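Escalated from tier 1: N-acetyl naphthylalanine holo job.
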Amino acid sequence: MQPTHQFTLYHLRMPLQAPFETSFGRIHARECILIEWRADGLTGWGECVADRDPGYAYETTGTAWHIYTEFILPALLEAEINDPADLQRRLAHIKGHQMAKAGVEMALWDRIGKASGQPLRALLGGERTRVPVGVSVGLQASPQELVRVVEAYVSQGYRRVKLKIKPGRDIGEVEAVRARFPDLPLQVDANSAYTLETAAALRPLDDFNLLLIEQPLAEDDLWDHSRLQRQFRTPLCLDESITGVRQARQALEMQACRVINIKQGRVGGLLNARRIHDLCQQQDVPVWCGGMLETGVGRAANLALASLPNFRLPGDISATARYYARDITHEVFTLNPDSTIDVPDRPGLGVTIDREALERFTIRKATFP
Ligand code: NPQ
Ligand code: MG
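Tier 2 regenerated the structure:
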């Protein structure tokens, strides 16, 4: 019998507007994998947010490509799945690899929305049609330079700023930005760069009225986060540590954080992202939508997710121009004057692919079967 489902993988390399530096390194270009899923005359698109290097998480474009070609796509070609929960059951025998799973799940949601004429926002149960957003600012050469970069974003209209920090590049940075912007909603992200011992140096951050301190310690260290949270009035927020629903529940039980950053890729897809959202909502714990320098495809998914009601802090979802001079979607996301971005309202993800841009940034491509 002729297979009715077909997948094409695109390994992309997208040049960034400006280099982005975090505690785990500096990048000039973002890599990712786009998944095109054709079935029943419709095409769904998904984005796998794993990057070239295992600096943020163990998954890379290389591991995701391997998991797709050897395990995920064979399983999906055999079963011809049309429901996200079925898809996750079908992939449950594959340990980890949450970003790879999330990429195909996103393409399925896009197909379902297109088939039913509904935007992803509606499929997920989101209410808002525009969502508050902020900007994540990378490490800069000096506190003075950081203040200049933040000034530029504030003048573009961003009303919440996140500063990347690492040991030795923390208190002076926050102090300089806070002095220049006494009332700006401000938060910091360490991407696991500290230990319980070195995090003692972060104590002065408690006096800068920060919204939260994101992921100071290792991703597999809920326990020390709970010890550290007891030393701070400022809420700790977990990002890398929350790779699924169970990790979220246990982090809250342990009081390892008071806020959770939800990224659909890190938690294995939009279904798990919504489950974590619902769990936190039941416990009155605020969540917000993280970002991974997505293309227009992943950005559309983030906006739909962030329209759910317990996303109570601005997301790391900036305008297209903050990341890319040219994106692979025809749609360009812009910042509204009130520091929000509109949630797409066309069926599925609500974006269309610019094939010419896609080809330009593709460094590897394969179709199955
Ligand atoms: C975070 N995002 O919240 C992530 C970190 C991050 C917007 O700060 C390639 C691979 C680029 C992984 C950029 C933001 C990345 C990346 C940022 C992760 O921790
Ligand atoms: Mg983070």
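The chain has two domains: 6-117+353-368, 122-342.
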